[in-house]
Amino acid sequence: MKRKTILLFSALMTMLAAPAALAQLPMFYTTPGIVTEASQSDSQLPSSATRFIDKHFRGIDIDKCERYFAKDRFEVELNNGIDIEFDSNGTVTEIDAPSGATLAPALIKDLVPVKTFRHLAQNNMLSQVESISYRHGKFYEVELDAPAADVVIFDLKGNFVKFED
User: pTM of the predicted model, to two decimals?
Assistant: First the structure.
């Protein structure tokens, strides 16, 4: 009986100690899975993205820089509230002004074709642009802070396509 108690106690102690001992071992033979995103230093941004930020937002610090590996893109948040998305080459794919603000005309001019810029200026929409997105490599989507049309769609050549709500 004494022998059975000792064996049972030993088995119980082994079962309780095993997980703690395994937790101490390095995980050389396991993988953490696919990394989908990670915080990055702004030094990890492609050089064209860095040049874009330096040109248009000189003196404004980067609050957050994240890389999304699955989508092959970077998201940058500036401390003035501007959010910028870059592809892996450093090309702007989306830019958003902070809530209640709009994008500067000089910035818009650098991001869209001349035809698009002229259309926005001629129709008094230039001062209402909240965001610009490049969708599926097929068109530009310009979101406005306007009571009528919320979104204006342009093709890649800068031609007006349609308004959306």
Answer: 0.73
What pLDDT shows up at residue 6? 58
At residue 61's C-alpha, the angle toward residues 56 and 84, to 5°, is 55
- Kindly state whether residue 19 falls inside one of the protein's structural domains: no
pLDDT tens digits along 75-134: 999 999 999 999 999 999 999 999 889 999 999 999 999 999 999 999 999 999 999 999
Quote the CA–CA distance of 89 and 49 in Å, as a whole number: 8
Highest mean predicted confidence (pLDDT) among 23-27, 96-100, 136-140, 147-151: 96-100
Domains of the chain: total: 1
Task: Enumerate helices (H) and strands (E) in the chain, giving the number of each.
Answer: 4, 9
Query: Residue 48 falls within a domain, yes or no?
Result: yes
- Residue 150 belongs to domain with CATH number: 3.40.1420.30
List, in sequence order, every residue forming a beta bridge with 38; answer none if it has no partner: 67
Q: Within 10 A of 65 (CB to CB), how many other CB atoms are there?
A: 21
Torsion-angle region of residue 28: left (phi > 0), alpha (psi -120 to 50) or beta?
A: alpha
